[in-house]
Write a structure and sequence with these properties.
The strands form two sheets. A four-stranded antiparallel sheet has the order 4-5-6-7, with no helix packed on it. Strand 6 and strand 7 form a beta hairpin. It starts with 7 loop residues before the first strand and ends with a helix. The chain is built from one helix and seven strands, in the order E-E-E-E-E-E-E-H. The protein is elongated. Helices cover 4% and strands 31% of the residues.
């Protein structure tokens, strides 16, 4: 946020990202900046609160898969990460299910099995009262 009260909001879309910059005045609308990465899926844009000129963007450009871009000049120029994020390769093992079960303690409805905290693992009121 600049000293005059202006600030920028980054909007990520399925067609690219663009900045909306305030003028610092409540009487004026936001100014829409030039679109960045036209045609790319932009999942997230974050600004470093310690340095407003530093930005990180999570994107999928279509032909190379998901990647991360960074900008040190407030979004005027972007550089792709030298090593985009990726999952570790799993070691070869015996044949079996190809997907490991992941449990989420926050959403048991998405993994209803008992080992993931689903309904079967939650004791009933009668079991609690004893």
């Amino acid at each position: 946020m600049a000293g005059n009260g202006s600030f920028t909001i980054w909007i990520g879309t399925k067609k690219g990202a663009f900045p909306l910059t305030s003028t610092g005045s409540r009487d004026e609308a936001f100014k829409v900046g030039a679109i960045q990465f036209l045609g790319a899926d932009i999942f997230h844009v974050v600004q470093d609160p310690r340095n407003p000129s530093a930005l990180l963007m999570a994107a999928k450009t279509g032909h190379l898969g998901p990647t991360v871009y960074s900008s040190g000049d407030g979004g005027k120029t972007w550089a792709e990460a030298a090593r985009p994020p990726q999952f570790e390769k799993t070691p070869e093992g015996p044949p079996g299910p190809s997907v490991a079960r992941a449990c989420s303690g926050f959403r048991p409805a998405t993994n209803p099995s008992p080992e993931c905290g689903g309904p079967a693992a939650i004791p009933s009121r009668t079991a609690i009262r004893g």
